[in-house]
Design brief:
With 225 residues, this protein is of the alpha/beta class. It contains nine helices and nine strands.
Length: 225
């Protein structure tokens, strides 16, 4: 069964525009694309936002999540309209786990030192962190755009726990960024293997949808087919 609807879910320190290079590539192949705008205020609010986007689609869905959104799609993906899951450099919690609980098990990633909390518990990245550890394979202009448009995430959202992990019951695909300094490749490999996902590896930073959009789009189309 070939699917023609895709819902794209951005991660922390991003918004829907992080998929700007992917959307036209998928649309050119006949895909109906929705890029969700997460509030990043709580895990529950983020899952509900994705649920509304799924409800508005006309037909079955490929659900794609980057980074933190791997946790979000793991919960929201239990919707019966979701037939396949795609993880892009993403957390992949099981039931009873969260992005934060997985992260606590990982070897400390270099990006951690460039995360800054505000007085209300929202986390942002420094410009240095974006340039050298988050999007190090983009040019200076694109790095500056990421810094200016980043969506600060409430730290509590990272602790949102899954009640049921959708990847247990759906074909799952995982793209590993081999130069990722936010979620290290060894940990991505461990999560992807646990899910028995179809794995693809690419020499990319944490944002392959911006540095290698054709590869990412082709991987999503592979999942859809």
């Amino acid at each position: 069964m070939t699917l023609t609807n895709v819902v794209l879910v951005h991660g922390a320190w991003a918004d829907g525009s992080s998929w700007a290079k992917i959307i036209p590539l998928l649309a050119a192949k006949g895909m109906a694309v929705t890029a969700v705008q997460l509030p990043l205020t709580s895990f529950e609010a983020d899952v509900a936002t994705v649920g509304r986007a799924i409800a508005l689609t006309q037909g079955d869905v490929v659900l794609v999540g980057h980074s933190y959104a791997g946790a979000v799609i793991g919960q929201a993906g239990n919707d019966p309209k979701v037939k396949r899951l795609v993880y892009i450099d993403a957390f992949a919690p099981d039931a009873g786990e969260s992005a934060a609980s997985l992260f606590a098990q990982f070897k400390a990633a270099p990006l951690n030192d460039e995360i800054r909390p505000d007085t209300e518990g929202f986390l942002s990245l420094t410009s240095k962190g974006i340039a050298t550890l988050f999007a190090q394979d983009l040019d200076l202009v694109e790095q500056s755009v990421i810094h200016a448009t980043q969506g600060p995430i409430n730290g509590a959202a990272l602790g949102g726990t899954l009640t049921q992990a959708a990847w247990h019951s759906r074909p799952t695909f995982y793209l590993i960024g081999e130069q990722d300094l936010a979620i290290l490749p060894v940990d991505q490999e461990r999560m992807a293997t646990r899910m028995d996902a179809t794995i693809k590896r690419i020499a990319s930073s944490h944002v392959p949808m911006l540095s290698h959009p054709v590869v990412v789009a082709d991987f999503i189309l592979q999942a859809a087919a």
